[in-house]
Fold:
Amino acid sequence: MQSIFLDTLQGKKTSRPPVWFMRQAGRVLPSYMKLREKYSFQEMMANPKLAAQVTLLPIHDLGVDAAILFSDILVIPEAMGMDLTFTDKGPVFSNPLKNEIKPEMALQPDEKKLEYIYENIKEIIRTKPANTPLIGFCGSPLTTFCYMVEGISRNHTFPEAIAMLYKNKSTAIKILTAITDLSITYAQQQIKAGIDVFQLFETHAGLIPESLYKEIMLPQVKRIAKAVKSTGTPFIYMPKGIGFGLEWIKPKFADFVSIDWQTPIKKARKAVHKKVGLQGNLDPRLLLAPQAVIEKELEKYIPFGKKNKNWIFNLGHGLIPQIPFENVKFVVDWVKNTDWQR
Ligand code: 1CP
Structure:
């Protein structure tokens, strides 16, 4: 049996859309929370057996059509020499770049610091059920840069990081280039270790004007995309808040684009090149509502799913910790059992 997820990515006709969720391997799973009582997030990432186990929890517990590597986008700054801790309030860097006089000089990229992740990938591949595709990922340069400059995420606005793009553009570009260079090596090594698909998480695309994104960020993002696509690995781009920038996404750049919950999926379909597939875009907060309310919203996707075969069911952003496991499972079962009339 082939994978419905890989078939869809390759443009084949399938009886239903494949389904997986961003942040599926985390706090909505009771099995994950049980492991977290014993181990910290960083302990689990550093242990190939635990990292593989957590990566595969959503396959066993939810029945999703793909696994995503259990890791974090902030391993790139860590491999550039920044001291990172995952606290209950989120990730924190002890030495944010905003405190450095010459921030570009403070970074010391060391690709060897990422090697443990390739070992985790190999362990996942050894232990995963047959035909379970594995998604590898990294953060997009802007999103990674925001955390590196500010050190923490305060209301997701990152004013000092964004200000640096205007006040100290050449320094910002040097940092963004260094992030991109290491991300390219990282993506290539994930592919070598055996991932099937690569997703680039640009959570904070909507923080800057479209023109600035196009000028500074897009060239870097395209370098990562090219490095991935040149290996024949499907490339999914998730630019949350990109707005009209969806029009830039052509097949040469990305195979699929993940649509945020702000953008109506039908409008996204019109904006994005027709040969680029879509992923998305249910509002994760809907999953806090009763199942009857969830089902009504899900039904609205049927006409879209009937017409559009190059579509992967997902959320418009990651699962949030408050969401009940039963509601996540309800969505997976609904997508799998609905007659999509294809
Ligand atoms: O305490 C814990 O158990 C740790 C919680 C946690 C988990 C499970 C963090 C801290 N990261 C992760 C895993 C993670 N992060 C994955 C793995 C697979 C999956 O389940 O999807 C992925 C793909 C990420 C990516 C990530 N990390 C992004 C981009 C995607 C997104 O959701 O926007 C971002 C912005 C981060 C930073 C981060 N790491 C962790 C937290 C709590 C945050 C967000 C901080 C913030 O901005 O508020």
About this structure: The chain has a mean pLDDT of 97. Residues 169-193 form the longest helix (25 residues).
